[in-house]
Specification:
Elements (H helix, E strand, L loop, with lengths): L4 H57 L3 H18 L2 H19 L6 H18 L16
Helix pairs in contact: 1-2, 2-3, 3-4
């Protein structure tokens, strides 16, 4: 029994198209899962960063910051867990500066605090592909 060469070529072509389609579908599935995972992480980071900034502002504005410190610690830990590396490091540097100042009961140096805050906010902005600020300072407001 002799098989026509055209049938063999057609079968090989058909098999190639099926394998190519399956390979493409698998690659698309893996890529979509990865992109979905990245999107979910970025949404979580956005939520954590916004909450941290609100709690930090409350901490700064408090007449008695010690009352707000437990919530500040909680949100600090969230940033360290969910934040990107640069933001986690910048927030940790700010946190360490605040802790060290409180431990030695030394007034905060506003220029140094401003630099820590600028580094923190810029690392958050970089995480979302936004431009950095040349300067940044979170004012303290007490009524």
């Amino acid at each position: 029994m002799e098989i026509d060469i055209r049938i063999i070529v057609a079968l090989v072509g058909c098999l190639g198209a099926i394998i190519g389609g399956i390979f493409t579908a698998i690659c698309n599935y893996i890529l979509n899962k990865k992109l979905d995972s990245v999107k979910k992480i970025q949404e979580k980071q956005k939520e954590v960063y916004l909450k941290f900034l609100r709690v930090y502002q409350d901490f700064k504005n408090a007449e008695h910051p010690g009352d707000k410190f437990p919530q500040f610690q909680h949100e600090f830990n969230s940033v360290c867990l969910y934040g990107d590396n640069d933001t986690s490091k910048a927030v940790k540097e700010l946190y360490d500066y605040l802790i060290n100042s409180m431990l030695v009961k030394k007034p905060l140096n506003e220029a140094q605090l401003s630099e820590y805050e600028k580094n923190m906010i810029n690392s958050m902005r970089r995480c979302f592909g936004l431009d950095e600020f040349d300067s940044f300072y979170m004012d303290r407001f007490i009524i």
